[in-house]
Specification:
Layout lengths: L2 H18 L22 E5 L3 E8 L2 E7 L5 E10 L2 E10 L8 E12 L4 E9 L6 E2 L2 E3 L27
Antiparallel strand pairs: 1-2, 1-9, 2-3, 3-4, 4-5, 5-6, 6-7, 7-8, 7-9
Length: 167
């Protein structure tokens, strides 16, 4: 085999590995529309597994926190708004766990919708760089004011963790 053939074979192999390497992140196929008049993402939303999701919108950005309904984990998200679409990054931590297994992170998207009585977040989230993969739909609870400080790393009903350098 000539040197030229060897170099060609190595180049083809390198290109093949690059093309077959890590798959592209999954993205949500959503298109922004106008936000309904007088509405914002701000509110307290309910999901049977993820519990209450508290969202606060300031201008074009949103921050939020949730605590799972079974009190097994809590999470935070932050993202940007375009019309009725919120694209966000999230992180969720299991209570009582430490180390890499304690926290999951990813991305997601919510689409704000409303009918005559209720507002909804039609959403999906992914783990890692994925924005899609799992469904996360919520209904806004009427007459509830979000309180981000009501959700923390301390399991409700327990004393706050203190001492040591946990950061």
């Amino acid at each position: 085999m000539s040197m030229r053939s060897v170099l060609l074979a190595v180049s083809v192999a390198a290109l093949s590995v690059g093309a077959c390497g890590k798959p592209a992140p999954k993205t949500a196929n959503v298109v922004a529309a106008a936000m309904p008049s007088g509405e914002k993402f701000t509110g307290v939303y309910q999901h049977p597994v993820f519990g209450e999701l508290h969202l606060v919108q300031e201008a074009g950005s949103v921050t939020g926190k949730w605590q799972r309904a079974d009190k097994s984990a809590w999470g935070e998200l932050s993202g940007s708004v375009e019309g009725n679409v919120l694209r966000f990054s999230w992180g969720e931590t299991k209570y009582g766990f430490v180390g890499p297994a304690a926290t999951r992170k990813g991305k997601g998207v919510f689409v704000f919708e409303r009918d005559d009585k209720f507002a909804y977040l039609k959403g999906q989230y992914g783990v890692g760089e994925d924005e899609a993969g799992s469904k996360w739909d919520n209904i806004r609870l009427n007459n509830r004011v979000p309180n981000l400080d009501s959700i923390s790393a301390n399991l409700p009903g327990t004393a706050p963790v203190s001492g040591g350098n946990w950061e």
